[in-house]
Specification:
- The protein is mainly α.
- It has a domain at about 395-464: Serine Threonine Protein Phosphatase 5, Tetratricopeptide repeat (Alpha Horseshoe).
- It contains 28 helices and no strands.
- Helix 3 (about 45-60) runs antiparallel to helix 4, helix 16 (about 270-280) runs antiparallel to helix 17 and helix 21 (about 355-365) packs antiparallel against helix 22.
- It is elongated and about 105 Å long.
- The termini are far apart.
- The model is unreliable at about 1-5 (pLDDT under 50).
Amino acid sequence: MHLSHDEEDYNLSLSKFESMLKTNKVLFFDSEEFEDIILHYMDIGKPSLAKKALKLALEQHPKSTGLRLVQVEMLIFEDKLEQAEKMLNDLYAIEPTNEEIFIQKANISSKRDDHKQAVEYLKTALKYTEDYADVHNLLGMEYLFMDDLEMAKSHFIKCLKEDPEEQSGLYNVIYCFEFLEQYEEAIEFLNQYIDVNPYSEIGWHQLGRLNFTIKHYEEAYRAFDYATVIDDQFMGAFMEKAKSLEHLGRYEEAIWNYEETIRLEDPTSYALLRIGKCYEKLGNEVEALKYFNKTVHEDPLLDKGWVAITDYYVRQKNYQKALYFINKAIAIDGENIQYWKRYATINKELEQFEEAEYGYRKAVELGDAELDTILFWADTQLFIGEYEASIETLVHAIVTYADNYEIEYRLAGLYFTLNNIKKGAYHLSQALKHNFENRSILEELFPEVWEMQEVKNCIEKQGK
């Protein structure tokens, strides 16, 4: 790879410094070289080396304002704010128009959660700086801390006008648009940005994301496609392009793009799962199953992989195979609601009602509050003759689903079955009042109750 002259000088300075540390020979560096070396070690998380470099730097350049400011930055990083503040005040007395002094004062204020004061310092820095993009970006971040998204957005836009290649500014401005749910405005902004910066793969990628969010899948696909043309190693853009193609029903093209992500990086369970889903949509069950198996092999903790395999065998009505795989899934994660619901449903199909009841119970205990799950559980309890347990399940449910006719018909049938005529009549009356047309629920679940004279009288009375 060809390095620029600045990069070569930078690497040479680092090599020279590290060689000096090994040999204990004291070599001379200019102050800017030292600044780069210190900041490099701070950026890569080696503070001890940064401190060594700073100590040597100040010995060689004791009056360098730039090195003193780097020292301030290190003190702020270590939360030695009062010491940093004192140094900044001393430096201000010497160089009152140095924008970096105000930037570091803003940094201290921000650390103290005084974001309004930080903004004031940064506005002063704007008067003296030549790097407007950086200061606008910092102002945007302070407004984000204050939850003023409109002002934050305004400064991030100004940052991009000064430096269109400032990627963090681009991501931040789109974040503001999205947080404010200004999707159309964000798309308009990105179109204008791309007109000026047509080779910005990040711009095209963000345009694709926004169009995908508002379900404009054709526009999303085109934007992601441009991103991959500009950068043919852009794995994220290939992934998003595949998702867009899937939504457009172009499954073979989607498969190719998902496979491209695998060629670029190691296989991901998500890509393998989506390839399986695409083959499923194409009616190629053999390839679909192959990729579902690859998914759970790649990531045994991905519940969607186990669900896909289980559902595949359920559709084939191969319930024994489906049970085998859902049991494997439960052995890996016994706290997954989706697994227990499928375990219950499969066992019900196999007429293993005790196991089905246990599955529904586990799903509810783990937090499943969906009405269908509760009704299936109550019906299974009814089927195995646990009438009191079924009543308890339904009584708990009616607190959440008040006046629900499906619950009321079941409670009516259960109470009549247990010869509690008064409660049975009350719940039947409630059920009929809320949904007279669906009274067949009672006939299907409780045929003997349906024939009772008290029940016929109640229905006849309600129907008038």
